[in-house]
Each structure stands twice: as structure tokens, then as C-alpha cells.
């Protein structure tokens, strides 16, 4: 598995996911602004990876001078606040972003740094810790999730939920790989995930490198596959899980969940505890990111719609908890009723 985030000298390098699978290019970010642009542009993506990258962004913001994130001479607190504001506004749905920035803020308040160098070192250590914690959470999710699968299973997944999305082993992607290694998976169905093709470009790349057998299909094939009995389970990740268990994830997830329900296929969500947002009561309260319409009207830079065609680009949808069979976390597998299971797991 390739982690897409690495600290190199005094910059954070991100494996530029816009360029995969064609090119493996590392994007150097020397300031919080660089990181914010990388998140907005999806050079780094996937809820946990976004949060970890943002935490590194806080550390970079403590520097001043050209290429640094801060106004020369500004005090440590205003550097922190400006960077947290900028980074926090990059993508609204993935709650891991707000969660990681809040971890940074709590540390910042507790340490009361006055020197930028000390703050930068402390915040960089925190970002590295978040990366390690994510790896450990991914390991546990992979173990717990693989137990839910049975030998011979054909598992459908959506978007990209592997190492590229978390910096560790992945959420649903980690479960799929662990299940394959344990003889509990026959193959994975990978849908393309329009408009930006995270499935075709990223999941196919990762599974191919890991030697996991898979077939790539168009998003609109899912109904046919299920009607023909070719899908045994669905596993997806999440960008935010509300307190009642409603799940926001990449656009198209809800469609798959409805089809899975219609065909009696168990629908699982794998997500770390940091993706559960107790402050969001239901899925209806989750802000849904809307992105540039050009992502819909163009494909890899080529127009696929008439010039000026009006479009809408909702990046995520919400799957009601009633369609979810289980939520796989690093603290175990949650089962319905999810409001109670979530309250209990968060209280641990
Ligand atoms: O827009 P993206 O590519 O950041 O969307 C990513 C997803 O929807 C993933 O399924 C989600 O972040 C969970 S995987 C760790």
C-alpha cells in the first residue's frame, strides 16, 4: 500500500492523486495555503487523508517568510487561526477535516506556544501521530471487517477507500485487501465513480498493485450485477456519519444502497471513529459539497457535453441508516440500532 502523505525535509509531500494512474508525482507543499489548494483540487482526498494533510498544514503555517504560510512578524495565535480557518473551509462534507483541526487546536491551547518554531515542531508531531493512529485504526478495521466476509464473496465497492484515502491501509479498501489475504474474498467489483473516476483511476490502481482480483464496471452496471446475483456484499467508506447512523459518502453510494436493499445484499460501511460526528444529528444536517460543474461536463479535460450545458455537481449523498447492515470501526462492528451503538462506542 502506498501512503500518499510524507514529511520530507521541511515540506509535506502529497502523492498527487489527480495524476494517477498515469504518473506518480509528489506535490511539495511548503505552506498552509499550498495544502489548502491541494485539498480543494483533490491532489489529496479521502476523508482521513484530508484531515491528516490539514494537520500538517497547521504546522507549515507557523513558518514565516516566502513560501511559508504566515504573514512575517504575525504572532503564533493569528497564524494558527488564519490557517485553521483556511484549511477548514476547503471541503465541507468530510468531518475528519474539522476533527483533525480540532485536535490541533486543543494541543495549541494546551501548549500555549509563543515561539513559531516550537509550535511548528509540536504541530508536526501531532500530524505524524494522527497518521500513525490512522494506520492502527485501519489495521483494526481491516481485521474486524474481514471477519464479516466469507470465502467466495464478490464484494462491490465505490470510490477510493484504500491507502490513498487514509494514509494508512484504507477503510473499505483495507477490509477488501485483508479479506483477500485471508481467503475470504473471490473478487471485487469496482465501479468507476463518475465524475472524477476515483474507482477507475485509484481503486483499480491500488487493487492491481496489491494483487487483489477485481473487475471495473460503469456506475450504472450495479443494478444488473445485483439482479444477476453477482454481488454478495457491498463495502464502502464514509465522509461523515451522523449520530443516528446516516452515512454521507461519495455521490452514487445511496443508489447502491437502495439496490442492495432491493436485492438482499448486505451493505457495510467501514469508517474510523473520527468520521462519526456526534454533533450532526441526522444525515439531513450534513453539508453536501457541490463542486465545479466542469467536472461533470468534461472528462479528463475533454468536453463531453455541448458547450454551455447546465450541470449540477453534488459530490456526496446520504444513505439512511436503515439501509446499512453494519458499520465497521476500529472499536468493533456496530449494528442497528445505530443511534444507540454510536452513543455507546463514543462513550468508550
Ligand atoms: O471526493 P473524495 O474523493 O475525497 O471522496 C472520498 C470518498 O467519498 C471516500 O469514500 C471517503 O472519503 C471514505 S474513504 C476513507
Descriptors:
12 helices, globular, 41% helix, 348 residues, 16 strands, binds 5-S-methyl-1-O-phosphono-5-thio-D-ribulose, 7-stranded mixed beta sheet, alpha/beta
Can you give a write-up of this model?
There is one protein chain. The chain is an alpha/beta fold. The chain is built from twelve helices and 16 strands. The strands form four sheets. A seven-stranded mixed β-sheet has the order 6-5-4-7-10-15-16, sandwiched between helices. Helix 1 (32-40) runs antiparallel to helix 2 (47-60) and helix 2 (47-60) packs parallel to helix 4. The model has no long low-confidence stretch (mean pLDDT 96). The structure holds 5-S-methyl-1-O-phosphono-5-thio-D-ribulose (MRU). 5-S-methyl-1-O-phosphono-5-thio-D-ribulose binds next to helix 2, helix 6 and strand 9.
Amino acid at each position: 500500500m502506498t501512503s500518499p502523505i510524507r514529511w520530507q525535509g521541511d515540506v509535506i509531500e502529497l502523492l498527487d492523486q489527480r495524476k494517477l494512474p498515469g504518473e506518480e508525482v509528489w506535490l511539495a507543499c511548503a505552506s498552509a495555503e499550498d495544502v489548502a489548494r491541494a485539498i480543494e483540487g483533490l491532489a489529496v482526498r479521502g476523508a482521513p487523508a484530508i484531515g491528516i494533510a490539514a494537520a500538517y498544514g497547521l504546522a507549515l503555517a507557523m513558518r514565516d517568510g516566502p513560501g511559508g504560510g504566515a504573514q512575517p512578524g504575525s504572532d503564533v495565535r493569528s497564524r494558527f487561526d488564519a490557517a485553521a480557518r483556511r484549511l477548514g473551509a476547503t471541503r465541507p462534507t468530510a468531518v475528519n477535516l474539522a476533527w483533525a483541526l480540532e485536535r490541533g487546536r486543543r494541543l495549541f491551547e494546551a501548549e500555549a506556544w509563543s515561539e513559531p518554531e516550537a509550535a511548528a515542531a509540536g504541530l508536526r508531531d501531532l500530524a505524524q501521530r494522527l497518521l500513525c493512529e490512522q494506520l492502527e485504526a485501519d489495521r483494526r478495521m481491516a481485521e474486524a471487517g474481514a471477519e464479516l466476509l466469507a470465502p467466495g464473496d464478490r464484494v462491490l465497492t465505490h470510490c477510493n477507500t484504500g491507502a490513498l484515502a487514509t494514509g494508512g491501509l484504507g477503510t473499505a479498501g483495507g477490509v477488501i485487501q485483508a479479506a483477500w489475504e485471508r481467503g475470504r474474498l473471490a473478487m471485487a467489483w469496482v465501479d468507476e465513480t463518475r465524475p472524477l473516476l476515483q474507482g477507475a483511476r485509484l481503486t483499480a490502481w491500488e487493487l492491481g498493485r496489491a494483487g487483489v482480483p477485481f473487475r471495473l464496471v460503469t456506475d450504472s452496471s450495479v443494478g444488473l450485477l445485483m439482479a444477476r446475483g453477482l454481488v454478495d456484499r457491498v463495502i464502502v467508506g464514509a465522509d461523515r456519519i451522523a449520530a443516528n447512523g446516516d452515512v454521507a459518502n461519495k455521490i452514487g453510494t445511496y443508489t447502491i444502497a437502495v439496490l442492495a436493499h432491493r436485492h438482499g445484499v448486505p451493505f457495510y460501511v467501514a469508517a474510523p471513529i473520527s468520521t462519526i460526528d456526534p454533533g450532526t444529528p441526522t444525515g439531513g444536517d450534513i453539508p453536501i459539497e457541490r463542486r465545479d460543474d466542469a467536472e461533470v461536463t468534461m472528462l479528463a479535460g475533454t468536453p463531453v457535453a455541448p458547450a454551455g450545458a447546465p450541470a449540477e455537481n453534488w459530490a456526496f449523498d446520504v444513505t439512511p441508516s436503515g439501509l446499512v447492515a453494519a458499520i465497521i470501526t476500529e472499536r468493533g462492528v456496530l449494528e442497528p440500532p445505530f443511534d444507540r451503538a454510536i452513543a455507546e462506542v463514543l462513550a468508550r
